[in-house]
Structures are given as C-alpha cells and as structure tokens.
Amino acid sequence: MASVASPVIFKEFCPLYYLLNAIPTKIQKGFRSIVVYLTALDTNGDYIAVGSSIGMLYLYCRHLNQMKKYNFEGRCESITFVKLLSCFDDLVAVGTASGRVAVFQLVSSLPGRNKQLRRFDVAGIHKSSITALAWSPNGMKLFSGDDKGKIVYSALDLDQGICNSSLVLEEPSSIVQLDYSQKVLLVSTLQRTLLFYTEEKSVNQVGTQPRK
Predict the structure, then answer these.
(1) What is residue 128's predicted lDDT score, i.e. its pLDDT?
(2) What pLDDT, on a 0 to 100 scale, did the predictor assign at position 14?
(3) Hey, what's the signal peptide range on this chain (predicted)?
C-alpha cells in the first residue's frame, strides 16, 4: 500500500517592511550623513536581531511588535555577527569588526525572569573581526571565533553578573562556523573542519585533505 504523502504547505515570502521601516537608512553625525547598512542577522521564535554598520543592534520583539536598540559605548563600528538564545533568560551575543564581543541579557515581563537589562563584555582577547558565535543550550557558555583563527570560550554566570573568557584554540585560517553540543565544539575554518572536545581539550579533524 502506497504511503500517504504529507500535505504541502504553501508560504508567501515578502519583505518585512514593518521591520525595515523601523531601521533608519541614514544617520546624521556632525555635518556628515552616514548610510546605514544591515550587516548581520539572526532570528528565533521571539526575536529578530539585526546588526548594522553603525554599531547599532536592532532587536524586534515578535510578540509585542516592538523594536529596541542596543549599542556599544565608544567608537561606532560595524557589527559582523549576532547570535540569539532563548533559555531561562533571553540572550543575544554581538561581535564587531574590531573583535569586540558583548552579551545582552534582555528584560522579560514573565514572572521570575530578568527585570533589568545587563551587558557582559568579552574583554580584549579578539583583535580582529568576529566571524562566528555559538551558545551552549543553557546560556552559560559562549564561543566566539574571528578571522585570524582565534576561538575564545566565555563562561557566564548570569546570577553573579560575571563573564570570564580565555583563548581555547588558535587556527591558521579564518573561522567560518561554530556549533556547540554535549561538550563538543564543531569548528569550520577556511582550511578544515574539526571537533574540539572542551573537557579533554583535544582536537579531532574531520577528513584528511585540506580545503582548496
């Protein structure tokens, strides 16, 4: 007997004008008018996070239909990567072109959840553009990679407001992808893909031939 085919769901794809209209196309800085470019994107069921060339993170809440803005203090630089996480608290990690990494712990209206916006900084290890970010499912670990091949592990204690960071791996080429699960970090670079076992601090390369 032939199996019954699952129903086909048709979806319409269209520009998110309600989102784009909430982001300025230009800003005024002194006597100069600066064009705003959208440089990074991540989504989940609760939020749409958009990074920009002016160092501003635009975070759209899908449930409340509200747009909020977050930025780095100091100089204005392009955001190169954003990564959302929904666990007990809502978190968003942001990386920039100069290697700055920050984590925003978002405010929630739900009982028992975070009631004050907090920010954690990964201090001074990366010196070049952030190209990848990966969360652990519980939000206690963040891995960041840059275009010089450095991978940094940050341990977050959200209750104590502490972020401790250390360099765990250094590759000879740019990091292009990170993913973490069950104490294993998947790392892809321009030259190879490897598994980094965080407890043993050992590396297992996937395949034998370098990428061309």
Answers:
(1) 95
(2) 78
(3) none
Q: Which residues pair with 49 in a beta bridge?
A: 42, 59
The 3-state DSSP class for residue 69 equals strand
Q: Which of 35, 48, 117 is nearest to 82 (CA)?
A: 48
Distance CA 104, CA 133 (A): 14
90-96/150-157 β-pairing:
unpaired
**The pLDDT of residue 210:** 72
pTM here? 0.87
Domains and CATH numbers, the chain: 17-23+35-175 (2.130.10.10)
Nearest one of 92, 165, 158, 164 to 125, comparing CA atoms? 165
In the numeric block, the tokens 């800085």 are attached to 29
Regions of the chain short of the pLDDT cut 70:
1-4, 74-75, 109-115, 211-212
The closest alpha carbon to 104, from 129, 125, 79, belongs to 79
The reported pLDDT for the residue numbered 2 is 57
- Three-state SS string across 152-210, please? EEEEEECCCCEEEEEEEEECCCCEEEEEEECCEEEEEECCCEEEEECCCCEEEEECCCC
**What's the confidence (pLDDT) of residue 154?**
95
The position carrying tokens 């104590």 is: 160
Measured between its terminal Cα atoms, the distance across the chain in Å is: 48
